[in-house]
Amino acid sequence: DGGITQSPKYLFRKEGQNVTLSCEQNLNHDAMYWYRQDPGQGLRLIYYSQIVNDFQKGDIAEGYSVSREKKESFPLTVTSAQKNPTAFYLCASKVQGAKDEQFFGPGTRLTVL
Amino acid sequence: RKEVEQDPGPFNVPEGATVAFNCTYSNSASQSFFWYRQDCRKEPKLLMSVYSSGNEDGRFTAQLNRASQYISLLIRDSKLSDSATYLCVVNSLRAAGNKLTFGGGTRVLVKP
Q1: pLDDT 10s per residue in chain B (112 long)?
Q2: How far is A82 from chain B (nearest CA, A)?
Q3: SS in 3 state form for chain B?
Q4: C-alpha to C-alpha distance for A94 and A78, rounded to whole angstroms
Q5: Given an 8 Å threshold on Cβ–Cβ distance, is A98 in contact with B32?
Q6: What residue in A sits closest to B33 (Cα-Cα)?
């Protein structure tokens, strides 16, 4: 089955710790994205990558970092510099092209204790 | 002004009724448009793309009005299972490539 997987589903972190969220896709999509969603809010773009070994900052990149060493994988690190990291994190991927929709993973719910 | 704006609702809809809501966008160069459905604590899933001529998928009808820069979604014969948040998504071409911008979502509650 093709799709996007994210792990873990729930993650608890102590303040001051870095944590890495996993995102893997086997859809052969070139572009991958990370979003953050807060309760009752829409999705905000953190980082995106159009091709391997290249990525760009989204609207709220501060306190986050990413890598794109493989086409299938786009991990997101939430660093201690992120002031309010508790949120629902969604990874997505799509084929390049304006009319193609994004496909989302099931999300990781991060809670900072 | 936000790039993509939606009425957050909630729209309280009697079962069997029709509900419609809009989404406005500010970038006149926007190229493609989508409606996603998101259930509570789940990921968004594509409901339908929005084509220039308007399109229909069962009980759902989407329309695009480029002159006034909005898209709409109409749900006929509402079912209890239609209760969800509906996200408007707009794809715009930027210097760094295509960018999808999400609206804040419109919450729909269908009641018996």
Answers
A1: 788 999 999 999 999 999 999 999 998 888 889 999 999 989 999 999 998 888 999 999 999 999 999 999 999 999 999 999 999 999 887 666 677 889 999 999 999 9
A2: 22
A3: CCCEEECCCCEEEECCCCEEEEEEECCCCEEEEEEEEECCCCCCEEEEEECCCCEEECCEEEEEECCCCEEEEEECCCCHHHCEEEEEEEEEEECCEEEEEECCCEEEEEEC
A4: 23
A5: yes
A6: A99
The alpha-carbon gap from B112 to the nearest alpha carbon of chain A, in Å, equals 24
Q: How many CA atoms lie within 13 A of A34 on its CB side?
A: 30
Residues listed for chain B: 112
Distance from CA of B102 to the nearest CA of A (A): 6
Q: Which residues of A have a CB under 8 Å from any CB of B?
A: 31, 33, 35, 40-45, 48, 50, 56, 88, 90, 96-99, 101-107, 109
Q: Do B103 and A33 touch (CB under 8 A)?
A: no
Residue contact B31–A35, C-beta within 8 A: no
Beta strands at A43-51 and A54-57: parallel, antiparallel or unpaired: antiparallel
